[in-house]
Amino acid sequence: MVVFLLAALGLPVLYARLAPPAGWQLYRSWSYGGDYTQYRSAMLQGYDGAWLIVNRFTPEPHRPILQYPLYVLLGHLARWLHMPLAWPYVLTSAVAVAVLVYVLYTFGGTWLAQRSQRRLAFWLMLSVGSAWLVALLRLLLPGADFLARYDSAFNRPEVNTLLLLGAAPHLPFALAILLYILADRWRGQTTFRQHPWRFAGTYLLLPLLLGLLNAFSLPPLLVLSGLQALWRSWQRKQLAWQDWGSLFVMSGAVLPLVGYNLWTFTRDPFWGQAYGSQNYQISFPPDVVLLGYGVMGGLAIIGAVWLWRTQPDKRLLILWGATLYLLGYVPVPYQRRFSLGLGPLLAVLAVSGWEVLGRTRQVRRWRHRLWGRVLGGATLILLLWGQQMMFYSAYSSSYLGRGPAPREVFQPTALAEAARWLDAQEGEVVVLTCEPLGNTLAGEIHGRVVLGHAGATLHVAQRRVQVRAFFNGTMSAADQAAFLREHHVSHILTSGVPTLECGRGYRPPGGWQRVFSQGGVEIWSDRAGRH
User: Fold this and answer.
1) What is the pTM (predicted TM-score) of this model?
2) Is the pLDDT assigned to residue 531 strictly greater than 60?
C-alpha cells in the first residue's frame, strides 16, 4: 500500500524533473500548492546558516523569528551534505507519506479488531464528497448560484486527508503524530513506571515535535487529552492519574511553545499582522462540511448514534470527534487549522455505520443480486472516491505538463535565470513584480519582494491594488516614484511569459535601465542601483 501510493505520487514528479515542458522547469517538487515558496525560502535561509528566519515576501523590515523549523533544518542538511535544496525536501516528503499511511492504518486498528474493518477505515479516511456532482448540477442549472458555496468544500487538507499525501511534509507528519498520541492515550498502555523511555518519547518529545511542525495541532491535542482525563475520571468516580499525568507532561512541554507562537503572531507589530490578523483560515459552514465529507460523513453519523447506544466504552471516541469539529469554529482567524484529524476519527465511526446499513434487509437483498453488487459497488466508488480520482488526475496532469497552465508546478526557465541573476547582485535587492512572480522569486533570492504570497505580504489587499495600478498605468508618475521610494525598490521585473504576464510593455521612468532580458522576462534597475 505504501509502495503503491509513493509510486503514484512520485512517478509524475520524476517525469516532470526529466521531461518538463519546453521553456519551463520543475519548481514545486511533491508539493501541490502556492505555499511551497514559503518553505523554499526557509530552506534557503537555513542553507545560508540561519536558524531564525525573516519573511521575504514583503519589503517591511522586521526581526527574525523561529518559523518553519523543519524546512530550516532541511536547508542546513542540504548544506552539510552538499545537496540541491529539492533533494532533502523530496526525501522528507516520501518519508512523511509512508509514516502517515502506516499511522492511518494502525489508528483504525485501535478500535477495529478485524482486518477488513481496518482496511475499510483506511480507505474511508482517503474518501471525500463528490464535488463533480456539484459541478454537474451547476452546468445543468445555470441559475443555481447558491451551489457556489460548495466549490471549495473538498480541497482543504482538514477535510480531505488524501491531499496531505501531496502536501508539504510538515502536515502529514503532524497528523501522524496527533493520531499516534491519541491512539496511545486510548490504549493507556504507555505508563511512566513500566515504560519510562517510551512515555517520555510519546508525551514529551512527540508533542514538542508536533509543536515545531504544526503548532495549530497543539490546542486540539491538549483539549482532547483533557476531555479524556475528565471522561475517565467521571467513569471511575476517581481521578484517572495516568491520564492526568501524561496531560501535565505534555502541557509542560508544549505550553512555552504555544505561548511563543501566540505572542509572536498576535502581539508582534509585524508578525502579528502578516501571519496573524490578516491570515484568515475560516472553517466552512456546517452544511458545507457535511457535503465535504460526503457519504463517509453520513456513515459516521449513523455509526456514532449506534455506538453511543450499544457500546458505551466508545463514547469518548464520539466526543473526540464532536469536540474536534467544534474546535474548527473557535473565534480566531485560523480556526479551520484546529480541525486537522477530524477525517480519520469520522472514518472509524463510519465503519460502524457501514456495518449497520449492511445488516438492513434492503441492503442484504440488494447485495445478493449480481446487478445490485455491480451497480452498488460502482455507485459507492464514484461517491466515495470519484472526486479523489479527479484530484489525482489534476495532480498527475500538472506534473506531466498536460494542464493549461504549467505554472501550477513549473516555473519558466527565464524566471529561474532572472532569480539567479538577482541573487548574484551585491546587497539585498527589493523586487517589484506581480504576485505570482513575486511569490516564486521570494523563495529563490536572498532579497525581498514588494508583493508575494497572499498570507505573508503585509497589507496584501492594499498592496495588490497598488501593484496593479503601478503596472497598468493608472498610477501617476509622481505616485510611482513615491511608491518605489517607500518600499526601497531596487529592481522591477516584468514578464511576457504566457499565463505569467506582468507589466508587458511597461517602461520605467527615466533613470532606470534594463539590466536583464531573457525569454520574455525583463529586469529594470535605477542607475544608482539603490533608492
Assistant:
1) 0.93
2) no
